[in-house]
């Protein structure tokens, strides 16, 4: 417009900066859409099975990216400093509470007495070396790896450039990835709510919008057009099926509702009984092993 050409000085600089930022965002979105993970596979799934099925895989993809981000935070701020930096030495006057000592009551037998953690390590080392089972259950040799927080020292890590407070990093990183997870959930929920709100405004014209405005005119090859045809067909089919189920749910009789309620109660009771039985078996097995050791 004419006002744009009359901009001078700081206003023109702000306008150019805003324009460059918008162009950068558009280019970034285009690049991200080209490099998006599993894009073509998800489109193929959407075309063959509908939006309901692809939504599940999108959720799995979101969970995977969330877990990878959290894992990267833990590796960078907890694991790598522990591996690369040595812990601070303990003061000379500080006695190790887990050092081996001789009990006065057992001086004749010369039997050493250990603290709880040392005794646990000795018992663990005397157990059978079941590598695969330990890997699956996270026991045995797995307890001495960086997978468990108990391996990390509760001391400040020293280096020439900085002193890294590892105990503070435990708490700080845990708080950060919990907040990051919460922000990701809220962002996804807000996006979904916005999409449902937009779709809800035209709910009476849902099928008209799919038929007359659902086609992508940027498609230039036959394969993509076939996938798009299937996607539109499955979307209409899924919408009709959802309406049919909603009508059946609204028109249920009292006997059908009571039957469904009883089935749910019975299934939940069976699940609770199974969990109680599994817990009882686990406790009984543990007590039996302790009796055998004695």
Q: What series of H and E elements makes up the topology? A: HHHHEEHHEEHHHH
Low-confidence stretches: 100-108
Number of helices: 10
Strand order of the largest sheet: 1-2
Strand residue percentage: under 5%
Walk me through what this model shows:
Among the domains are: 205-251; 252-293. The chain has helices at residues 2-5, 10-35, 39-49, 51-84, 116-126, 131-137, 166-201, 206-213, 222-250, 254-293; strands at 101-102, 112-113, 156-158, 163-165. It is flat, with a radius of gyration of 31 Å. By secondary structure, it is mainly α. The protein contains 10 helices and 4 strands. The strands form 2 sheets. A two-stranded antiparallel ribbon has the order 1-2. Strands 3-4 form a two-stranded antiparallel sheet.
Task: Describe the SSE topology.
Elements: H1 2-5, H2 10-35, H3 39-49, H4 51-84, E1 101-102, E2 112-113, H5 116-126, H6 131-137, E3 156-158, E4 163-165, H7 166-201, H8 206-213, H9 222-250, H10 254-293
Antiparallel strand pairs: 1-2, 3-4
Keywords: Membrane, Transmembrane, Transmembrane helix
GO molecular function: mechanosensitive monoatomic ion channel activity
Transmembrane segments: 53-80, 168-186, 261-283
